[in-house]
Amino acid sequence: MQRTVLLMFVLALAPTGASTAGPKEDVTAATQAWADAFNSRDPERVLALYDPEAVLWGTVSPTIRDTPATIRDYFKVLPTQPQGRVVLGEQRVRVYGPIAINSGYYIFSNVRDGQPVTVPARFSFTYRQQDGRWMIVDHHSSRVPPPPQ
Predict the structure, then answer these.
(1) Distance (Å, rounded) from C-alpha 78 to C-alpha 50?
(2) Which residue range(s) make up the domain with 45?
(3) Tens-digit pLDDT profile for residues 105-114
(4) Residue 35 has pLDDT above 90, yes or no
(5) How many domains does the chain have?
(6) pLDDT tens across 45-83, in order?
(7) 20 to 30 Å CA-CA from 40: which of 46, 52, 78, 108?
(8) Confidence class of residue 12 from pLDDT cuts 50, 70 and 90?
(9) Residue 134 belongs to a domain with what CATH number?
(10) In what order do the strands lie in the sheet with 50-57?
């Protein structure tokens, strides 16, 4: 009987084929979800990833966006740019309890006047975990400056 109980205990603690992601992997996945939503060209899908108190300082925004309405206004152009895409590059994720920061770079691509255009940019996403989801509370994006001459 004791052997059976011990065996059941050991099996319960043994790793299974399914692995659980840690917080860093979850934040990386949340950032990928943002890129996937952006690439879907659906503003509502993008907006669903932002906390109601989020602040956005967008790559091409002359103003800071700090309400759901102004963030929606920023992303409303997505459906008008069907060839616009973003690809994530290197990232640095740090997790501090229910807060996480992901800093890295991404490359935006589009077609303008029939010509491909790419814009390398850098980002910082700050997330707050709510009800098991990492929600964007701060998003800053800016073009990568050209190398010094």
Answers:
(1) 16
(2) 22-143
(3) 999 999 999 9
(4) yes
(5) 1
(6) 999 999 999 999 999 999 999 999 999 999 999 999 999
(7) 52
(8) very low
(9) 3.10.450.50
(10) 50-57, 133-143, 115-130, 99-112, 85-96
What confidence category does residue 17 fall into, taking pLDDT thresholds of 50, 70 and 90?
Answer: very low
Strand partners of residue 134: 129
DSSP 8-state code for residue 19: P
Tell me the one-letter amino acid at 77: V
Amino acid, res. 8:
M
3 assigned to some structural domain: no
Residue 120 falls within a domain, yes or no? yes
Query: Could you identify the residue written with the tokens 């501090």?
Result: 96
Can you name the residues that pair with 111 across neighbouring β-strands? 116
User: Alpha-carbon distance 1 to 3, whole Å?
Assistant: 5
Alpha carbon distance 23, 39 (integer Å): 24
